[in-house]
Design brief:
14% strand, 2 domains, Aspartate Aminotransferase, domain 2, four-stranded antiparallel β-sheet, seven-stranded mixed β-sheet, 385 residues, alpha/beta
Length: 385
């Protein structure tokens, strides 16, 4: 078994930066470039034959690899462009919405892209809750969908999913679990959780890059649902070019149009590494290093916005210091890559290849910037990343 530090050579950017932004854009594996070159070679040499030689099937073959990482059964996960598309497919399964079951119970801390989707639907009533406890209370017989985040993106807090799922099932509602901030860093077992749907992406801890959202559908629901947000890849005979829709059997019925094949090729390099290391081992390293970040922040007197309890802490530690957007800009100028979010603070996200020395260096640099006022040149000229 390789030691975690031995994986550093797999990620070229680590040679040039202190890379602590894996919660936003996971470092690119070296082999991603090789996979993209393989896609290009097939396109150049095999041309249209490439569809039959693997391209067409990538939404479910790559989806199955995601499934192994998140505890989903084979044939229950497919790839999409992003989470917004995946959630739109889920919502379309329930069109037209019944007047007596038109509520979406939603938590304020979710990533807002999901909220934009549901609020844009004139036939839905979106009920916004402040935390997961209120969420459970507000789920009732009028509730259709409950989109929740497994890990909230600003503080990196793990949500208590089981009571939400139980309450939703009791009243006939469906939980849509967003695993974007947990897949690849927090062990997941979607089968055991019994959520109706799960969504996620690969930009972050999975190190799979953009264009690789995914959708999980609980196996017992698959054949009973007919998405109206659909496309030719969801047809039983897509190359028959028939005028009327007949859904494919199994998870393929949740697809839409032509798949994003190059993105899928690139993503598998990150998935391979996550599978090789193992999420349980990644989690063990993450808990130790996020605790180290909390301890270092405490030593400096910085405010820690993330949960201190290990069971509630995802892979990110959010630290709040004065004028943190400008401090973040100065960190970037020093090749320390992290990010910040409004009303939260600077987010630091080490991954399995990060070293303790990098964490100490990053916190030391934050302290130096705050103490010397080196961030003053960035005040008023800060952009979000």
């Amino acid at each position: 078994m390789r030691e975690l530090h031995e994986y550093r050579d797999e990620f070229p950017i680590l040679a040039e930066t202190t890379y602590l932004v894996n919660h936003s854009l996971g470092a690119m594996p070296r082999r991603a470039a090789e996979r993209l070159a393989e896609f290009a070679r097939m396109w150049a040499e095999r041309g249209i034959r490439s569809w039959a030689e693997g391209w067409w099937a990538t939404p479910w073959t790559v989806g199955d690899q995601i499934g192994r990482i998140v505890g989903a059964r084979p044939g229950s996960t497919v790839m999409h462009q992003n989470v917004a598309v995946a959630e739109a497919v889920v919502l379309s399964c329930f069109r037209p919405v019944a007047p007596g079951r038109n509520r979406v119970v939603y938590e304020r801390g979710n990533f807002p892209s999901v909220r934009y989707l549901y609020q844009a639907q004139p036939d839905l009533e979106v009920v916004v809750c402040e935390d997961d406890a209120e969420l459970v209370e507000r789920i009732d017989e009028r509730t259709l969908l409950v989109p929740i985040s497994h890990v909230l993106f600003k503080p990196g807090e793990i949500q208590d999913v089981e009571p939400i799922v139980r309450r939703a099932r009791d009243v006939g509602a469906h939980v849509v679990l967003d695993c974007y901030q947990s897949a690849g860093i927090v062990p997941l077992d979607l089968t055991a959780l019994e959520v109706s749907f799960a969504v996620g992406g690969s930009v972050k801890w999975l190190c799979g890059g953009p264009g690789n959202g995914w959708l999980y559908v609980r196996p017992d629901l698959v054949e009973s649902l007919a998405p109206t947000y659909t496309g030719w890849q969801a047809h039983a005979r897509p190359f028959g070019f028939e005028e009327e829709m007949e859904y494919a059997g199994g998870i393929a019925r949740f697809l839409t149009g032509t798949p994003n094949v190059p993105a899928h090729y690139a993503a598998t390099a990150g998935y391979d590494l996550v599978e090789e290391v193992g999420v349980a081992r990644i989690r063990e390293s993450s808990l130790r290093q996020t605790q180290l970040l909390i301890d270092l922040a405490d030593e400096r007197g910085f405010e820690v916005m993330s949960p201190r309890a290990p069971a509630r802490r995802g892979g990110t530690v959010t630290i709040r210091v004065p004028e943190f957007p400008a401090v973040h800009a100065e960190l970037a100028a020093r090749a320390i890559l992290c990010d910040f979010r409004p009303d939260a603070g600077i987010r630091l996200g080490p991954h399995f290849f990060s070293t303790d020395e990098e964490l100490r260096f990053a916190v030391d640099q934050i302290a130096d910037i705050v103490e010397t006022g080196a961030h003053a040149r960035h005040v008023g000229a800060v952009a979000l990343h």
